[in-house]
Design goal:
- The complex is a heterodimer of chains A (about 270) and B (about 100).
- Chain A contains eleven helices and eleven strands.
- Chain A is globular and about 50 Å long.
- With about 270 residues, chain A is α/β, with parallel strands linked by helices.
- In chain A, the strands form two sheets. Chain A has an eight-stranded mixed sheet, with helices on both faces. A three-stranded mixed sheet of chain A has the order 4-3-5.
- Helix content of chain B is about 35%, strand content about 30%.
- Chain B has about 100 residues and is α+β, with helices and mostly antiparallel strands.
- In chain B, the strands form two sheets. Chain B has a three-stranded antiparallel sheet. A two-stranded antiparallel ribbon of chain B has the order 4-5.
- Chain B is built from three helices and five strands; from the N terminus they run ββββααβα.
- Chain B is globular.
- In chain B, strand 2 and strand 3 form a beta hairpin.
- In chain B, helix 2 packs across helix 3.
- The model of chain B has no long low-confidence stretch (mean pLDDT about 95).
- The chains are: A alpha/beta (about 270), B alpha+beta (about 100).
- At the A-B interface, strand 9 of A face strand 1, strand 2, strand 3 and strand 4 of B.
């Protein structure tokens, strides 16, 4: 467990930006993947201010990490049976099982200068310090478990993933608000080696969703996340520009919808 | 048919190796997992370095081959070239089946 403190001069960097806030309408999983890549590049190019985007999903999904193999992670017939869109994201890390009402997802897009001097591992906790504070304000004793797990004394809540492109860092997080464990275990393949140092062979005991930990509606938690970020660093309401949306739609068609990308590692 | 091996770095990430051996050499290698790697293209460099290696190369030798293939400044987060080498050796030596619990 880690309850890391960062130097004041590093924390002060959060205040150097006019943070933009996008809260999506429900959006298709593969378009979300494309929006993440486009906004990372836009922030890197200085065309967009650093941004917090809270996602809303419009369908079930499995989101594979950049370096995962489809056949090792997903039971494709089960995914089809449960109307699950399978996609590959641009960040590493593990597969996420998403159902729209059960999931809380957000992205941060920032210049790399925000995490300058931090190791890759430390930058995960740094990018999520605000969300730990939000969770604690809801009575969840949240901590960061390196490298990229957000957890509490009651169990794992979610995971983060990062990548760096063109001078920008993309940091995104998916948390379980609720979880249909039998369905998840039908769709995802979770092998023994992966659990070998987790002290449990039961995948469904690893995650304790936020509904169970807070007894609050999902919307209340999402609102608290945005409010906490606003109170700490300030937030200016924003939306995707028509040009950003057009780029994302194109990238979705050309990359994220393609079998070449999904089966990059078959 | 590719031989399959897995290794999870304690406190880190899973590495999965699918390796084909012919004539005493690795002729193809696929490395996957839930690790983090920058730049993303470093993965292809590592797997290319494995191809042609003797099937009885030690973990150290396999790790060194991959280490030398990495672009300057590459970052392996949650795993290492040694972890990949362990997964590759397990694939060749044990060929564990894919499994789920």
């Amino acid at each position: 467990m880690s309850d890391q403190r960062f130097p004041e001069e590093m924390l002060a960097r959060w205040h150097e930006h006019d943070w933009q806030f996008i809260h999506d309408a429900p959006t298709a999983p593969r378009l979300h993947m494309a929006i993440d890549e486009v906004l990372t590049l836009e922030v890197g190019a200085g065309r967009r201010e650093p941004t917090l985007r809270i996602w809303e999903w419009d369908s079930n999904a499995v989101i594979l990490g950049r370096f995962q193999s489809v056949r090792n992670e997903v039971d494709m017939p089960a995914a089809e049976r449960h109307d699950v869109t399978v996609c590959r994201r641009i960040t590493g890390g593990g597969a996420m099982f998403v159902e729209p009402e059960n999931t809380i997802t957000y992205s941060l897009y920032a210049p790399e200068s925000l995490v300058k001097g931090l190791s890759f591992v430390d930058s995960y906790a740094f990018m999520d310090a605000w969300v730990l504070e939000a969770l604690r304000s809801l009575g969840v004793n949240a901590v960061y478990k390196p490298i990229n797990d957000i957890s509490s004394d009651q169990g794992k809540i979610g995971g983060a993933a990062q990548t760096r492109r063109a001078g920008a860092v993309l940091h995104h997080v998916t948390m379980a608000y609720d979880i249909d464990t039998p369905k998840m275990l039908e769709v995802l393949r979770i092998g023994r080696e992966k659990l070998s140092d987790k002290g449990s062979v039961s995948a469904n005991r690893r995650v304790t969703p936020l509904r169970e930990q807070t007894a609050l509606p999902r919307e209340t938690i999402v609102e608290r996340f945005a409010r906490t970020f606003d109170e700490l660093y300030g937030l200016t309401p924003s939306t995707l520009t028509p040009a950003e949306l057009e780029s994302a739609e194109r990238l979705r068609r050309e990359k994220f919808d393609s079998d070449e990308w999904l089966y990059l590692l078959p | 048919m590719a031989r399959h091996g897995e290794y999870k770095t304690p406190g880190g990430k899973l590495v999965v190796a699918d390796v084909v051996v012919e004539g005493g050499r690795i002729v193809s290698a696929e490395v996957t997992g839930d690790f983090f790697l920058e730049p993303e293209t470093a993965l292809a460099s590592m797997t290319a370095a494995l191809v042609g290696a003797p099937a009885d190369a030690s973990e150290r030798e396999l790790a060194d081959l991959m280490e030398r293939s990495l672009p300057e400044g590459a970052q392996l987060i949650g795993f290492s070239t040694e972890a990949v080498a362990t997964a590759v050796r397990r694939a060749i030596d044990v060929d564990s089946p894919r499994e789920r619990v």
